[in-house]
Amino acid sequence: MSKTSGYDAFWMPFTANRDFKANPRIINRAEGMYLYSDDKRQLLDATAGLWCVNAGHGRKEIGEAMSRQVAELDYTSPFNFGHDIGFEFAERLVQFTPKGLDKVFFTNSGSEAVETALKIALAYQQARGKKGKFKLIGRELGYHGVNFGGISVGGLTTNRKGFGPLLPVDHLDHTLDVTNNAFSKGLPENGVEKAEQLERLIKFHGSDSIAAVIVEPVAGAGGVIMPPKGYLRRLRDICDQHDILLIFDEVITGWGRLGANFAAEAFDVLPDLMTSAKGITSGVVPLGAVFAKDEIYNTINDAAADGSVEFFHGYTCSGHPVACAAGLATLDIYEKEGLLTRGSGDIGTYWQEALHSLKELPGIVDIRNYGLIGAVQFAQQDNGKPIGFDILKKCYAKGVMVRSMENTIALSPPLIIEKQHIDQIVSTLSEVARDIW
Ligand code: PMP
To answer: pTM of the entire structure?
Structure first.
């Protein structure tokens, strides 16, 4: 006899479990731009899952490549053993990364990529004899996954509280400025001076105690916040001046989301370390990665010049052969279909104009976009309760899957999106906004 009633055993992540289980939303099938709920409704996926299904759902090529790989080599230890598909995938990946980020360390998720990047940064400072440089700087409203390093540098208070002491960190202010930048198309004009706060933090802590600064080029989970024009370049310059590493967490901004391979390319700012996950396999299987400059790899390796292990870190499934097969098939799709630059072409322009057409609706205080990412921010209600989740549920009822954060609806569709899908997203949001206000 079954011990549970079907929904009991699964402790769901980032979900109000009891509320969900009283009224579950179950998706059991997906294809192309669409998800299908268990009550046989078709839902347009305006979020690419969680910013990850960049090639669209149900890509058979990826499944077939994985299946062939299972038959060939399902698994072997990545510690002191290798496999061709891992090396092939690594070489192929660094063809896509900005020039200079030519080494890749594999993880299983974005959170693990962040932990790995932070540990590489600390190991690098140790290896070059800068033993006092161990503090990390993050940013308010930043999201860097849910492990201890990630929540330490992260700036979402809900995710940080309740877990005891975290790492020694400090935080820059976030760059959201609805007063001065509302309804900016692309990058906002105002706010470059916020980067100067890094100078203040460096003065306060001393550059000889700071190992690295980590930011999302576009802050995602904190509300889809674009960097002001010149802001990331200024962070880069300040880090260079003070001998501090700059880490871009590109878990959502990589793989075509901004109309380029990575944000580093879109914004022409090269970090020292760059994280990736999600779109690296189009979300089909878990895989994360950290891309590092040669200098960092070489310094850490040189410090163990006697041939011993230079970096005591890694995962059982680092560079898992089946995940690598999925990744290679994903890169083939991206290339063959030109998906990674769609956001900076005609479809990106259509996306921008369609989203901004919502501007005149009641209750909307800001619209933000870049590439194929977007956000519609609604006014704070008089009762102080965030409205985002209500809007999400209303959109779901009307057949469109969106994501909510406080008063903001976040949009990040699969990169295969066409104009008719954009029209459906915009008309649904428009109906819902009119219903509410
Ligand atoms: N960093 C960023 C910027 C993210 O958006 C996310 C996930 N949304 C993560 C890290 C964590 O990735 P994962 O959930 O795969 O651990």
So the answer is: 0.97
